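User: Some background: our group keeps a shared notebook of sequences we're curious about, and every so often someone picks one and asks for a predicted structure to add to the entry. Today it's my turn. The entry only has the sequence so far, pasted here. Could you supply the structure so I can complete it?
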Amino acid sequence: MKEINRREISDEWAHAGIVEAGDYAFISYCMENEGQSIENQINGAFDILQNRLESIGLTLASVVKIDCLFKDIRDLSYLAKIIQERFDEDYPARKAFETKFIRDGIRFQIDAIAFKG
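Assistant: Of course. Here's the predicted structure to add to the notebook entry:
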């Protein structure tokens, strides 16, 4: 069996920001720019995702699936344009959810799966 590598461990929240398992990397809790506009929060989340991917030698082009969590699902209308700008037509499969966040200033978060093979 191949190794499972966990990075960006948070003992406080009991999770790993990055888990590499086999040919895949699982990236969680990508969020940034809390309290700012939804556009800034979406771009900030993709910045965090991109930084985490780069830390394990990958790029956004390796992302095959994203889960987009919104405080207000009506903000989904901002997502497509930002994905078009960031992914250069190498679009991942995706779905969006509306959820409650632990803090009021959080409006958006991404979890992703990237292919390493």
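Suggested note for the entry: DSSP finds two helices and six strands in the chain. Strands lie at 4-10, 15-21, 24-30, 63-70, 93-98, 108-115.
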